[in-house]
Queue: 3 jobs
Job 1
Amino acid sequence: MFDDLRQFLAALEARGKLEQVRGADWDLEIGTINELVSEKQGPGLLFDEVKGYPPGFRIATNLLHHKIGQKLALGLAEDMTDLEVVRVWKDWMKQYRPLPPKVVPDGPVFENILSDQDVDLFKIPAPKWHMHDGGRYIGTGVITITRDPDEGWVNFGTYRVMIQDEKTLAFYASPGKHATIMREKYWAKGEPCPVAMCFGQDLLLFCLSTMPIPWGTPEYDVAGYLRKKPVEVVEGKATGLPIPATAEIVAEGFSPPPDQDSRPEGPFGEWQGYYASGSRQEPVVHVKNLYFRNDPILFGQPPVKPPVNTWFPIPIHTASYLWDRLEEAGMMGVQGVYVHGPGNRIIAVISLKQRYPGHARQLATLAGAFLQGGACTGRYIITVDDDIDPSNLDEVLWAVCTRADPETAISIVPGFLTSPLDPMLSPEHRQRKQFTTAKVFVDACWPYHWKDKAPPVNRASDELRQKATAKFKDLFDRV
Ligand SMILES: Cc1cc2nc3c(=O)[nH]c(=O)nc-3n(C[C@H](O)[C@H](O)[C@H](O)COP(=O)(O)O)c2cc1C
């Protein structure tokens, strides 16, 4: 694992997975290049000499869209299968023991400090990523740090951030997100919420920032546990919030109650492939200090229209979380859990060894309850038998097509929490903030009461295959 973004980029470069791009324009060109390269599942990109900016003010994108990037960032062996990755991550998180961050007096993040009147967010070459974005988004690969005013623990989460003017940022955090809850607690007391936003840092921190780590568990402690050493942090000079000492770019300040200041945020090209949430008044941060390293690197993680996967190619964030929750709930027989679809959130597949009537439905119902919050999350929940690899969507579809009679195998249950980013919210629902979606449960397991009479699968046995492979070795060496 790495101490900062630079070490990660060096590791990617050593594997031939990083390209340098010089002279691109922050205004749509960088976003378009990123889109084209991610469509080709191409390498990570490091932009320098951005139009209108001094050399050295760089932007890194497309770092986690390929499996090597994801495995490097998370310290996973490069030869693991996709389902192994999910299983290993689940087991690591199960054995979690907190390792809190260590406060250090100084760090590279303080190499340059612009305070109060000198704060100028436009010093950073934040791109306008997509054609209809409402402005320049400095925060796409961001971690936003807040402290709970009552409980004192520190959270960080990824919520997009738009520049409003030299000293003001607007940030969009959905209902129920930890920063949303924390900032509302400050505002209820009439106080501004202290906030620090990092726009480039070790990618392990970023990955954790996007995962549903439970309320009360600081992501810093999880990062320390995974790295096997505490994350070194400096204290923000205005807020006292812990900031990664090796962060690239950090804005720190205060978010006033929205009735004192809020600004139009969006539209923004979102991960479902639309500009669904349009533009709304959202909370802001008045920036007191802008910190950045020499030759800072802005990390960009802008969404691209599906089927391009702009997030983890292996869905550890959702799949391992769901798998763990099902086991914690005492469910037996779960063989594997995987998540497919845009953002790796929408189609959850659970493979199980059926033990009793209703087993598959019970798992699907629990999964529907556990997977909530993000737009469209867990909209489709498919249960399959244990001979189906849940990470292989073709196999899953084979089971859906051949083991699920639509008349009895599909149930639609309305009323689950989604988010304002859900493209299927009607204008009326959006207006009255009815952020709910139905979920579809597809039971693609053989019906329990006659599963023993299910027709045999047309596939040579492992023994036959091994014998044929050994006997015709020349052939199988060639094909
Ligand atoms: C690339 C990326 C961008 C995201 N952007 C947002 C966002 O703008 N707003 C939001 O509420 N959630 C966003 N999320 C989801 C949250 O980061 C995620 O739910 C995370 O768990 C939130 O942290 P929290 O649980 O500490 O609130 C994003 C996730 C990813 C992977």
Job 2
Amino acid sequence: MSIKESDRTIASVDIHNFLRARRSVRRFKTDSIPVPVIERIIETSTFAPSAHNLQPWRFAVVADLSARIRLGKALTTKMRADMTATGVPQSEIEMRVERSMRRLDEAPVVILLCRDVTAIRKDEPEEVTMAIQSVAACGLQLLLAAHAEGLGGNWICWPLYAQEAAREALDLPNTWEPQGMFILGYAEAEPREKNLKELESLSLWI
Ligand SMILES: Cc1cc2nc3c(=O)[nH]c(=O)nc-3n(C[C@H](O)[C@H](O)[C@H](O)COP(=O)(O)O)c2cc1C
């Protein structure tokens, strides 16, 4: 079950520091990511916990540039329509669409993380929430596994607003419900320092 010692890229025993060092990365070098690295990231992410151990996560790996552009166009078409309907100025819409397309264009790999709607115990709202929470746990594990490989990544929520369009653009099975999109690559620059909320304001010790 564990990966081989020779495959390991984290030698540090300081797992806390490793976890704290993960950051969102949105700009990448042009270097491609070797396929075994992508496979290892996905495999590690599947070790995430899931409600009833149903493992509802599914992965659409979009490495091909034309498929990334197809996905980007599907998402930004919906984005443009939604923003137009809410009165966002045209110049801002075009700026955001262009930025979104650039991100998909520059990232060497895009992974669309989906929930299989059939991987559920009962069709009850709480069970649906648990399945979505399980997929989210997998998403974090995916980002951490990418970090372990020296890669940067960013979780992007746009597919939530265009689930049908994303599924159609990639010709995914009908039961795959897109939950989030992950752009992965080698970071172009160091991230800025992170502002964290005061720890005291976040927890109650009862
Ligand atoms: C559910 C979820 C959705 C997110 N959606 C986006 C997004 O659409 N675009 C984006 O640039 N970042 C997105 N992020 C990344 C957050 O902006 C980022 O995690 C946060 O600012 C903290 O920074 P850090 O990841 O560097 O610690 C998302 C993160 C999560 C967990």
Job 3
Amino acid sequence: MKHLRTLLILGALLNALVLLFLLARDPAPEGADAGLGAALEPLVEDATMASARYTLGEAAAKTNLIVISMDALRMDHTGLGGHTGGLTPNLDRFGDEAVVFTNAVSAASWTLPSHMSMWTARWPSVHRVTNKLSLLGQGQMADTTLSPGIETLPNLLCQAGFVCAAFTGGAGVSGRFGFNRGFGTYVDDRAFAGLDYSAPLALEWLQQHKDERFFLFLHGYDSHGQHPLPESIIKGIPYAGSLDGGIEEQARLREEGLAAIQAPGQDASLVGKVGPEDAAFLRGIYGKKVQQADERLGAFLDGVKRLGLLDNTLVVVVSDHGDEFLEHGGLDHGHTLYEEQLHTVFVMRVPGFARKHEVDGVARTVDLFPTLLALLEQPVPAGLDGQSLLPMIRGEEPGRLAFAETDYRLFVHRRAIREGRYKLVLDLQDGERRLFDLEADPLEQRDISSGEPRRTYELEQSLKRWMTEHGTNPQHYLGIRQEPITIF
Ligand SMILES: [Zn+2]
């Protein structure tokens, strides 16, 4: 009897030990000895993937990369961002199998500096590609190009043996600014081209290179004000006003809005020239453009799937900035740092982890490439401003301080800092600061700085400290007035 009891106790202890061992075991068997398929299995099974480790293991060495930039796509005009108009069914479906950053912030509010911050993982004031022309002094201007001393992360991939190609809409992502470093192919010959031009070329290239390890950058201006929408579609939008909705008119209105910025600190003002019905019409056109962009994205993703690439390719869809429709008195983008211009799409499908995982902390597009390098197990250079988002994706970090800058056309100079739900926008020319609570007021219609002096002061100090650390004297632009440069 005594022996039996001892045996039972020992058996129970053994069971408990085995159970403890199983529970304590790392659920992520990195470099598992199974084949590629097994390594790509989700390492944690739960409904949301919230606790998945996002480690590709040995599959990392065989994974390709596709980065798709949907120029000027506002997050709040996508289903992923809460829009209920059904404008983006393809992007939303893609998001059903991906990590979706619901609070992604761009480093700048227009194409050139925003993409360059993604490319270099540096803030605009560090990479200094903030305008197409740079002021040399004495009124002399020169084409801007990225300093050879600043590395682009795509170039690192190309040097690491990826076959690299880019198919873009040119203009603000033209290769000559430094974007094309390392690429074997970089198509940028049609200014403001959409995915209808770039995506078929990209699919053709993929067909030829699908058996090599590749990095593909695809970009289109489909949602952008300078990308045309067929007149028949514009005519279908109910509107009784005098605007025609074409791209020449869009450019004219944009310039009129900028010309109305007569005093430092003023936002663009088309109020009185463009009424609420006109703005609704222009927003309607934008919605149609977003729909068209999404259809083209869907066709491209179908093509990638047909080529059998989804199981070994990391696919990212990102946008560089949004667009304004009179939310702060202007049209277009680049001139302010409000959410309609900064809140961007950032969705990442990691093979083997193909279920939706929303990450709500503040993420930054400057973190894009360090994250991709980390996932692909490529070395991440030291000293970058951006950092891998894997700790945030894994739930180990709540969110980040985000910063944004604009020195648009060398005549508006603004900076913003975002900490959780609060955002401070600082005008460097007149020192005016505005504080917003993005949870209570997502469209930033109420400046709460006077009611929250302490928070305003602390955020402003953090922002100015950050500026000083990144090479900008916060006093430098005080009182400066310049005309906007005309080539933009
Ligand atoms: Zn853009």
